[in-house]
Amino acid sequence: MHFNDAPHCLTTLSSEPISESQLSLFPNPSQGVLNIEGIDPSIEQFEISDIYGRIYQTGVIQNQLQVENLVNGVYYISFFREDGNGFTKTFVKM
Questions:
Q1: The pTM is what?
Q2: What is the pLDDT of residue 5?
Q3: What total of structural domains would you count in the chain?
């Protein structure tokens, strides 16, 4: 199979790599405050959602996020750059 044979293949190209591996969330699991370290300056926004896609929190990226109001469970935090590209990490609220 060649890549050209895949009819539903979507590729997003970006001039700058997103440094997902450099960004860390701690403590994970978290009980109230989620610290974010290694934020790329081009990352502007975040969004916290659950496994069903329900959005619980959005905003401008900060070094600390308050998550004490979330019910215990697994959540996704998506990070978005100014050009619209982004990536998602997982954290646990306890």
A1: 0.77
A2: 45
A3: 1
